[in-house]
Amino acid sequence: xxxxxxxxxxxxxxxxxxxxxKSGVMLYERNSxxxxxxxxxxxxxxxxGVYILEAAEPVPPMSxxxxxFERFQAMSVFAIRDIMDAICKKKEPKEMYQFANSILxxxxxxxxxxxxxxxxxSKEDYVYKHTLNTAILCxxxxxxxxxxxxYQLDVVIAALFHDIGTLLIPLNLRHKNRSELSxxxxxxxxxxxxxxxxxxxxxxDLDFDIIRIVTDIIKQxxxxxxxxGEVPEVMPLGAEVLKVAYVYDMMTAMNFDEEPHxxxxxxxxxxxxxxxxNPDVVDALLSSINILQPGTCxxxxxxxxxxxxxxxxxxxxxxxxxxxxxxxxNLGDSRExxxxxxxxxxxxxxxxxxxxxxxxxxxxxxxxxxGEHRESKNY
Length: 379
Description:
single chain, five-stranded antiparallel beta sheet, alpha+beta, three-stranded antiparallel beta sheet
């Protein structure tokens, strides 16, 4: 499965994930082949990109949990949009608690892990879908941390509010790559996060715990908007949960700056910095979602490739069947780990070599015999 930006789509490509319209109606099913008209529609929707199946790649199986998760994502975007837009307009967000309860009802008491499926995002719904996914992750993680229901609810509601500052930013600035922002534009962007911070700092209607979580996380995520010493070094556990959920979704979702990272890269980032990310909270994330499911193809740091066949105590050290020697390697074994460590999930199953067009252009047409070394620049 590959992530392809909308500008790079070509006819005949097969969709790996369905596409819904603004009303939640499915327009294109998985495995649908893109036509020129379909590509125009995708671009008109403002989609950042889509997930595409490789030429010989079969359609990945979907469990009932997977189907329900995608359905919940598609239908919940509209409710979360109404809530967030109301907050931006300083109006009472109707059905806020009802919506937060629905998230907890579906994902706040699961005894099993789920496949956390990233959705296709457009310029219009990016912030809403990011917020929704962050709230769902918070619901699952707070349950694993055995938080009482009232505090679970506080964390989920805080998740609904944490990115209001981004939603306040005008579209022409919001969709720019960070590297493209001028110094003046960056200052302007910061003012909207300041406005969000002030909005919640002065709020007298929300529960104190919600306000504390939201204000602390805004300061943590945007330290440039507060004075030295005002960034909280110690945050409430709910804010720690929200921070990990935020980072995981931001890293694995499609965005305007770069291709999405794999869950392996995201998890390794979270696990490797125990000062920045609470290890107990990271463990709660790993206990909530599937990482390196059996059947996943991976690349190793030594260049080998293999197939995950079983999990291990450490999610990054499963049992892997090597394609090179057809042997099963236990990456949890320190002796095996010296030579074999997972680098990332395989981005492509295509083993064809990419031709260097510049080198090809230099070829003069002469005969090259097997094993013969040529010094000429023409070869």
